[in-house]
Amino acid sequence: MADRDGDSRQRFLPKHNLSLFFLCLSLSLSVSLGGCSEDKRTETKSQRDESAASNPQPAYGDTLVEGSIGDATNLIPMLASDSASHNISGLIINGLVKYDKDVKLVGDLAESWEVSQGGLQITFKLRRGVTWHDGHPFTARDVLFGFQTITNPNTPTAYAEDFRQVKKAEALDDYTFQVVYEKPFAPALTSWGNLVVLPKHLLEGKDIAKSELGRKPVGTGPYRFREWISRDRVILEANPNYFEGRPYIDRYVTRVIPDLATMFLELKAGGLDLMGLTPIQYKRQTGDRFFQQSYHKYRYLANAYTYLGYNLLDPKFKDKRVRQALSYAIDKEEIIKVVLLGLGVAATGPYKPGLWFYNPDVKKYPFNPAKALALLKEAGWEDRNGDGILDKDQEPFEFTVMTNEGNPVRQRTAVVIQERLKKIGIRMKIRVIEWSAFINEFIDKKDFEATILGWTTGFEPDQYDIWHSSKTGKKELNFISFKNSEVDELLEKGRRTFDQEERKAIYSRLQEILAEEQPYTFLYVPEALPIVHSRVYGIEPSPLGISYNLHRWYVPQGL
């Protein structure tokens, strides 16, 4: 699934967000899969050799400050659907399992687990001696309580579906949690990330939607909450009792800076230590001696894609010929060249190229304005009055695309699309809205015609919550209201088998249907472009990105 995305920058995926690797539209496309490597143009061999010779040792202390264009909405993971929230809560709250550096599933709050009964039963053995940030012991009762909360129909969450597959869940003792599934469920293990671990002693008998923990969370993770100043910053401090060892960095601050140009100036002035760069910032504004000495840049294909999504409740977009025409009318390669400066590849569907379930042979939509016009004519759209705008039933073909504030890449993408559609007689307006209002007032309420957004994808192909027809309600992730009976069937089948080849065939067919239907115009897969201050050590790029081990980052003494 995916992470709700409002930013072309590549931010730093929280190490605990496992199922959330797939499940939220992200404010900023999270650092993800792809041959992750440091950009050698920003760190010369002599600099690194000199550092190695000094043999810097990890030291405790310092503060890291990251920039974010949007504020968090809720720091209880099951209640949030944006990456600003999950980037922060992922440092506060653990899951039962997580991915390691090599993208292998390992224990987090679970020390081990046993899968039995043909995959229908999972028994988790939990870590002993773990405490919540308030000192209260963590037990299996907290996991059971979290499970009961997320599956409670009164809990306003978009993430309950995975857990509704569970027939029975119980705490066998303080350190043993067991679940039994009704049917085989392929994403079962990965679903037990940090969505369902809640402090029962603080939430039992209370309305979670109104809980103060949404703004003052209590977790078991490497960082504990200190302060949240709305639209300004969230401050976390190291958890001295973290079960994997106290983080080296004392404080981690997320500053809200709604404009990326302003954020970049803050980075240059020393007010930030890390951010995701835009392509222009990466290629043209960070190559001087100052940046070479002061920062390290990273570049790799993101586990994410950007799309133009259509509200399928709107009569204009109900005909797939219209959606196909729009895809033919948009020049993706132009966007990649002009907007991304070559730092990305064309998207063909909801998965990143190179993953085992990616289908490279789906229907493509190369730039072809003539074909676009032919399809539109078939669908009844022609310029009948000679005003240069296509019309049907005396209505002009015009619509508004919404995207979020502070995102120059997405806004430039909209302008390029606007110009291309104008040439074939479609009037497209652009509306840019502050992130939280954009999501809460327009996307969640389906009050839009079209939108430019993105998903952060992951290592599990299940996209039930994004594409299944049962997930089209308000605040659900299928907010474009896409419905297709064969897609529903495929999504259900893909969850019910553990056979990788069978799943590959299922998700290949899913991609074929989406390519034919074009509920989105799948635009591009961007490259992740994070930049981190050079005083920070311990960064080990991996297929996960760079922040999976953030609690092991450090600043050597004296730097």
Verbal overview:
It is built from 16 helices and 25 strands. β8 (110-116) and β9 form a beta hairpin. α9 packs antiparallel against α11. It is of the alpha+beta class. The longest helix has 18 residues, at 500-517. The chain is globular, with a radius of gyration of 23 Å. Strands 1, 4, 15, 16, 17, 18, 21, 22, 23, 24 and 25 form an eleven-stranded mixed sheet that branches. Strands 5-14-13-12 form a four-stranded mixed sheet, with helices on one face. Strands 8-9-11-10 form a four-stranded antiparallel sheet, with helices on one face. It has a domain at 4-39 and 53-93 and 213-300 and 529-552: 3-Layer(aba) Sandwich (D-Maltodextrin-Binding Protein, domain 2), CATH 3.40.190. The model is unreliable at 6-53 (pLDDT under 50). The chain is 26% helix and 23% strand.
Produce the secondary structure layout.
Elements: E1 4-5, E2 10-11, H1 20-23, E3 29-30, E4 37-38, H2 45-54, E5 61-68, H3 83-92, E6 97-99, E7 105-107, E8 110-116, E9 121-126, H4 140-150, E10 166-173, E11 176-181, H5 200-203, E12 223-229, E13 233-238, E14 249-256, H6 260-269, E15 274-276, H7 279-284, H8 289-294, E16 295-301, E17 304-310, H9 320-329, H10 332-338, E18 344-346, H11 369-378, E19 391-392, E20 395-396, E21 398-404, H12 408-423, E22 427-433, H13 435-443, E23 450-456, H14 464-467, H15 485-495, H16 500-517, E24 520-528, E25 530-533
Parallel strand pairs: 2-3, 5-14, 21-22, 21-23
Antiparallel strand pairs: 1-23, 4-16, 6-7, 8-9, 9-11, 10-11, 12-13, 13-14, 15-25, 16-24, 16-25, 17-23, 17-24, 18-24, 19-20
Helix pairs in contact: 9-11, 15-16
